[in-house]
Queue: 4 jobs
Job 1
Amino acid sequence: MKNWNKTGKVKALVILVICVLSLILFDYNENAEERNDFYLGISLITFLVALLFFPLVIKLWSVFGIKFQKPNWNENPISLNYSKSLNLHLFVAFWIISYGFLKTIFIAIKFNKLYGEGIMFLVTGIGIFIGIKLGIAWLGDKIE
């Protein structure tokens, strides 16, 4: 947090506000636990898809001449420049991780239940984050 500029702080505040609002507006249904097996299975699939999708797309776009820049938390995520497109995906990954983590912890503390949908969001966000890191590592010297 020491190295964050105004954009980084605003992004963190937006994620916090959206996650807190989702907790306030959340209506827990007792029947949600019946779908946990479904959500846990889907979690594995979305993790693997995100893990494979981002490195392959990054590599494919770099073959067509698009130069990528390393994503930076202090950059504006809404950029029309393809080289900075990973900033948006990094922001979304942190948002999904935060949402899933807070929702899972909230349900676990308040209702003593496992919330599969929250775990699905958490695992998907981690998959996106790792996929971006793998894509950057795969490009190696070609990244700016």
Job 2
Amino acid sequence: MMIGIVLWICGASKIIWARVTPTELWGSFSPRMYDLEKRLQESKQKRLEFEHKRMEADAELKEVKHLKSMLKQQAIQMVEQRRHFEKQQASQMAEQRAHYDNMMMQMLSYITSQSTQSSSDH
């Protein structure tokens, strides 16, 4: 802080500038100085509390992003597993259908041969 002191010398004024601290200017026990120091300490405390809360919020955000990533990966895996299961089910159903068709053809062939034999026996 700069302060100017005005000197009157022989009818003329002269300003002398000096660098002083607030304590030097108002004294260490000044009520105003005490109030300013108290406000400064409160501001520092609030800043520390804010920084702490910000760090906690950053940590929570990082955790949420990690969980989101994990859930997304699990969802992708579940979709892939479902597709694989559906393909497997479709393949099994096609095999069963082919097996049943084959059995039906064998039964039809047997019935036809039996019917032909019984007609020729009569």
Job 3
Amino acid sequence: MKKRLLAALCLSLSQGTYAAVQNLSEVAFTIKSDWRGSDKVTALGLEAFGNFPMSKFGYSFNSSLGYADVTTKTADKENYLTWDTGIKVGYFQNFFVYGEVGLDLFELLLHDLRNDDNRRNDDRYNDEPRNDLDAYVGVGAGMQFERIRVELYSRVRQIDGEHWESKERVFSGMQVSFMF
């Protein structure tokens, strides 16, 4: 139900999104990695940048396909594909700072590709299904050098499956973008 409400909200905002897309000025190919201890999320993607009229403040839409390798609260390892999609809003010049929010579209559209239902009989797992939408909120800063951008960020991530939850929530990361 929550996922359907989120999808309806996104569709209702489509006219505002269309106007924002009309102001996009640059597109970049991105390589990024989030980590915390041995846990990591690594991805390749695209990011499109725009500016608010007559302002040095701007926004970006990003989408990336990646691979996550995380440790659960019961010390098991979980590996899965991600389709992180998000938006950044901030001050974007040669030096930039921003805030961001995003979610895993694979989980939104396909529920859960990890198929961990086979764990129902394991005493270490709660028998009540729980699988919140994987999402993140974060802040970052970086520098742009000609057609290359380098940024560092921190994110609080919600990562879980039907019968497990990620041990770590706070991840740090680096992204390198090639503008075209």
Job 4
Amino acid sequence: MKLNARTIALGLLFPIFAVLTLLVLSMAQASVVAPDVAGYQLSAELLVLVTPLVALVMNAIGSPLTALSKRLFNTEGVLTRAVHTVIIVLITLVVGVATGALQGAPGALAIAAVLAILKGFGDYARLKDSTTAGVQGK
């Protein structure tokens, strides 16, 4: 598959737009409610900062688990993405139950899960592209 400037631009614009949209939704939800999570009242500003950080942590846990399941069960393509999504959802539920965020800030937790899934897909695509470029000698 030959990449041109238009393909690259579209490939970059969608994830950026998705992340910005989710951050705006997170800020909108945070401005409405100040949830009680793990016994602490979170301000709107703190919730906006914590949501992407939680996504990074969930992705840091979920990506290696996805790679392990890919190696153990020989999954490829769409099935690997589905496994990654299921792993992130399970991590989200565990984090939500452990911290009480499912009752206090379910919207922020859902946004963190979507960000983690998008980051995982992006990391995998970047790794695959760089590996392909290295093999082809570019």
